[in-house]
Input
Amino acid sequence: MNKKIAIGIGVAALLAFVSVAAVFATDWDEHMNYDEPQKIPFDGVVEDGALDESSLNYLALEVFGPVLLILAVLMFCAMIGGVCIAREDMEADHDDSS
Output
């Protein structure tokens, strides 16, 4: 097996492990109430230097932060992969036309 393929498989396995670990580490039931719509509080988000635990900021960044970070890294890798694939196609086109 090629060394690059082995490294790629290892990185993919590591990303899958971290993704699954973040999903299981997040407490989904505590902040999810599907019985009734929730009002997004805009007033009193930060009082006396403490972040209100019912605010959208707290939920997005503190509770679901690990999942958002994993998605950000995954999207960044997808963008880099797309650029690399496009570059390889352009180089192959230039080599064929010469």
